[in-house]
Write a structure and sequence with these properties.
CATH architecture of the largest domain: Sandwich
Number of helices: 1
Strand content: 25-35%
Distance between the termini: 35 Å
Number of strands: 16
Order of helices and strands: EHEEEEEEEEEEEEEEE
């Protein structure tokens, strides 16, 4: 692997880009928001005319910048027609780190254009990341007998305009999380075994949220907010 800075495409890239298209597939399965410690692997498929022939080589790039203008790491040109489970260059992701991935291929028509990159975000990978405070009702009747699900609220102030926020929530049972009355994730599914913890992750984006109300309704109400 070698680190590179993005440069101009090869002279024949324009001709190849008009005929050869690369469709990337995210390393994460559908519905999974964050990557774990496993090495990232990228797959793609190629749509090209018969004149292009087979894939002769590929180059994978990774960057923390979606425009690939800085900190670009490249696999260099790799000969071959492999397209599934290709290792991604660069150091392993750290907790909460975001990385953008893209690939181009070479055929008989030359190099393809770079397709839109895929975005990959790391989850909370270290034990020290999982610091939370369990919350519940002081005198929850549901602790001893069947009772309506409690609603837990917390008001907090956002002094700046955040680009995005991610909330990690887990509950013994089901939970429904809302911000300012707006549901920001599908309600979790009930668990038939309350001793097992169900975990959901979701992102909430705000344009200008100066004062945000977090409302949680939960059954077997044990809800944790990560730091």
């Amino acid at each position: 692997m070698r680190a590179t800075q993005s440069g101009p495409p090869p002279r024949d890239a324009t001709r190849g880009a008009a005929a050869v298209h690369v469709e990337l597939r995210s390393p994460l399965a559908n519905g999974v928001l964050a990557a774990g410690r496993e090495p990232l692997r990228l797959s793609w498929r190629v749509i090209a005319p018969a004149a292009a022939g087979v894939q002769l080589a590929y180059e994978v790039q990774a960057s923390r910048d979606p425009a690939f203008t800085q900190d670009v790491v490249s696999s260099g040109e790799v000969a071959g027609d492999d397209q599934v489970g290709i290792g991604v260059p660069g150091a392993p992701l750290r907790s909460r780190e975001v990385r953008y991935l893209r690939v181009r291929i070479r055929t008989a028509l030359g190099w393809s254009a770079w397709p839109p990159p895929v975005r990959v975000e790391a989850g909370l990978l270290d034990r020290s990341d999982w610091v939370a405070r369990p919350i519940t009702l002081p005198d929850d009747p549901g602790a001893t007998v069947q009772a309506p699900a409690p609603m837990l609220r917390r008001t907090f102030e956002v002094t700046d305009t955040p680009a995005a926020a991610r909330l990690h929530v887990t509950a013994l049972g089901v939970h429904d999380v809302r911000v300012n009355g707006v549901q920001i994730a599908p309600a979790s599914q009930p668990s038939s075994q309350p001793h097992r913890m169900s975990r959901s992750e979701f992102a909430a984006e705000y344009e200008k949220a100066y004062r945000v109300l977090w409302v949680v309704a939960a059954w077997w109400a044990v809800v944790c907010r990560s730091c």
